[in-house]
Design goal:
19% strand, Protein-Tyrosine Phosphatase, Chain A, alpha/beta, Rossmann fold, 482 residues, nine-stranded mixed β-sheet, six-stranded mixed β-sheet, globular, 16 helices, UDP-N-acetylmuramoyl-L-alanine:D-glutamate ligase, 3 domains
Length: 482
């Protein structure tokens, strides 16, 4: 077996394959020195082919498992495909093992009697918060779940750990019930590109806005990848969609028209009274027919009672709630979770207040639409720290919001000049040499009552390992100030 790409997903897939007894080779164009930070997590039995992609390990493999960061159009994969070599994505591989187990060696399905299911969330912005909140709700209801995918650990890694725990429990005659009811996953467009049979019991598309156009040729190609989340859904499955998002509704209408067997569709909305969940007059209403003890159009919770704030988080909360209710979560657990869930790190995360200035870490704001939603969450003047590696974003779409809400714009990274050309005339703009310099400039610009917001609208890879690294460095710099 050959695993292509040695990032988090590649390690998860390689370790799961090795645990199932396969002879595994991992290939990556990066060198061992470049991958030294991830190598310790790899099963020692796995063979390495680093620095290039040798053709022979592709065309002589029994199966290729591809990490989501690897485009399916690279030459060795096209060569393997022409030879009839099976090619699956890491998400698809995890799905097959979890749902159906393995014949050789014999491995039982991970999900309860094969009757459990995947709960899958995709979209451009907000999918991590929605996924984490959904898992919080399911666990609060007493369901045993596994959380993975584009959030936290790779799905294959979580499947491997759970299979290992079950095996050890059986070996030790443990009385603990280690059966899993649901696997809750955040899935990206990259992961969905390579699915074959992946079929979530409940799926959601929280929104679709331009992103990753450095990988996709058009918005249409990007949305087509997102739409694959419901490609295999049939009668008895559920799809939750954002009624307020034009691109989501467009792709739903186009793709569902050609499907013979369709999932049942519910919506969430801040603007319309829909079949699903909607907000009106500061109250979230539930309108899902057939739920036990929940009348049509019944009030669920006030928006003030929801712990995570901001209009984007209201949408995330409604999406997660609809999914949880459709998966069998009692309404009381949904309400309690909405009141308790604290949100995620790096998603509009409050860091501290110093001299009357509030500092927020929104390092996960890696595209223009994420920054739009973050800026809309503040009424106070904002000093915005932005920049990084451009993902072919249209920064000019921020002009009106920057002119209205941003007191000063502080730019870092590779895209700083492009952002200044697009937005520099909309507010006072200053270039910073690095993140620490940007924080210092922002502090000097800010007055009591202002907000300093890191929301980059760009990827992090020009200066940081990932968005988490960028957010952690920002928080450390802010906390060191006195």
């Amino acid at each position: 077996m050959t695993v292509v790409g040695l990032a988090r997903s590649g390690i998860g897939a390689a370790n799961l394959l090795a645990g199932l007894g396969a002879k595994v080779t991992v290939t990556d164009t990066k060198t061992e020195e470049e991958l030294k930070d991830v190598m310790p997590g790899l099963d020692p039995s796995v063979r390495l082919a680093l620095g290039s992609h040798p053709d022979d390990i592709f065309i002589h493999a029994d199966m290729l498992v591809v990490s989501p960061g690897v485009p399916l159009t690279i030459r060795p994969l096209l060569l393997a495909k022409s030879k009839g070599i099976p090619i699956v994505g890491e998400l698809e591989f995890a799905y097959e093992i979890a749902m159906y187990g393995s014949d050789d060696p014999p491995v039982l399905p991970l999900l309860v009697g094969g009757k459990g299911g995947f709960l899958a969330v995709t979209g451009t912005n907000g999918k991590s918060t929605t996924t984490a909140l959904l898992d919080f709700m399911m666990k609060k209801s007493g369901f045993k779940t596994v959380l993975g995918g584009n959030i936290g650990n790779a799905v294959t890694e979580e499947v491997r750990k759970t299979l290992t725990a079950k095996h050890e429990g059986h070996r030790d005659n443990s009385s603990n019930d280690l059966s899993i009811a649901f696997i809750v996953v955040e899935v990206s467009s990259f992961q969905l590109e390579s699915i074959k049979d992946f079929r979530p019991k409940v799926a959601a598309i929280v929104n679709i806005t331009p992103d990753h156009l450095d990988r996709y040729h058009s918005l249409e190609e990007y949305t087509a990848a997102k739409a694959r989340i419901f490609e295999n859904q049939t009668d008895g499955d559920f799809l939750v969609v954002n009624r307020d998002d034009p691109e989501t509704m467009k792709v739903i209408n186009e793709k569902l028209r050609t499907k013979i067997e369709k999932p049942e569709i519910f919506s969430f909305s801040r603007k319309w009274e829909v079949e699903g969940l909607y907000s009106k007059g500061g109250i979230v209403y539930c309108n899902i027919p057939g739920l036990p003890r929940v009348p049509h159009n019944s009030p669920l919770i006030t928006t003030e009672e929801i712990k995570i704030k901001g209009v984007h988080n209201l949408e995330n909360a409604m999406a997660a709630s609809a999914m949880a209710l459709l998966a069998g979560c009692p309404i009381e657990a949904v309400i309690d979770s909405l009141k308790e869930f604290p949100g995620l790190e790096h998603r509009l995360e409050f860091v501290r207040e110093l001299a009357g200035v509030s500092y927020f870490n929104d390092s996960k704001g890696t595209n223009v639409d994420a920054v739009i939603k973050s800026l809309e969450s503040f009424s106070n003047p904002v000093i915005l720290i932005a920049g990084g590696r451009d993902k072919a974003g249209d920064f000019s779409r921020l002009k009106d919001l920057v002119r209205e809400h941003v007191k000063a714009l502080v730019l870092i990274g590779e895209a700083s000049e492009k952002i200044r050309e697009a937005l520099g005339e909309s507010t006072e703009t200053e270039m910073a040499k690095d993140l620490r310099d940007a924080v210092n400039i922002s502090r000097n610009r800010a007055a009591g009552g202002d907000v300093v917001l890191l929301s980059p609208a760009c990827a992090s890879f020009d200066m940081f390992a990932n968005f988490e690294d960028r957010g952690k460095q920002f928080k450390r710099i802010v906390m060191e100030m006195n």
